[in-house]
Amino acid sequence: MPSPASTFPSSAVATPPSTRGPAVVLLSGGLDSTVLLHYVVRELGHAPVHALSFRYGQKHVRELEAARWQAHTLRPAVCGHHVLDLAFFPALLAESSALVGTVTQVPDLESIPAAERNQPPTYVPNRNLILLSLAAAFAEAHGCPVLYYGAQAQDEYGYWDCTPEFIGRVNAVLALNRRHPVRVEAPFSRLDKAGEIRIGLRLGVDFSRTWSCYRGGAHPCGACPTCVERANAFRTAGVADPLG
Question: Mean of the per-residue pLDDT values for the chain?
Answer without folding.
Answer: 91
